[in-house]
Specification:
Low-confidence stretches: none
Number of helices: 5
Radius of gyration: 15 Å
Shape: globular
Strand order of the largest sheet: 4-1-7-5-6
Order of helices and strands: EEEEHHHEHEHE
Structural class: alpha+beta
CATH architecture: 2-Layer Sandwich
Length: 157
Amino acid sequence: MRTGIGYDIHKLVTGRKLVLGGVEIPFKKGLEGHSDADVLLHAICDAMLGAAGLNDIGTYFPDTDTRYKDIESVKLLKKVSELVTGKRLAVNNIDTIIIAGEPRLLAFVPLIRKNVAGILEISESALSIKAKTAQGIGPAGKGEAIEAFSVVTLKER
């Protein structure tokens, strides 16, 4: 069994769609970034890469490369999954936390969970997604940003 941890944070800005776990969330702001800035998928990617003993997400998809400008992070997660599979590893379990003072995400968690499980072709029972508000503390708690943490365990195939 191998374990990896991932983290990401992006600033909330006007004029962008808010995408979390590959799901568009209706909100007045979106996340600023080179890609669609899906913090949840970025954290999962980094955790999977770490568990596989590979480099971080920026190594494979640098923000200096125009090929990744505004790319859907779902495509990045699929590529990371291929890299992990290429090392003869498979996802055993994923545990995540999304921290956002706003918007409130609890109602979207089941849809996000179903979408991420589908992308990775894993059982929803192998994936936990929790939404926290941070009680008004820090950039995410104050509604200035959204952040995500992920822990992934991989098993030999």
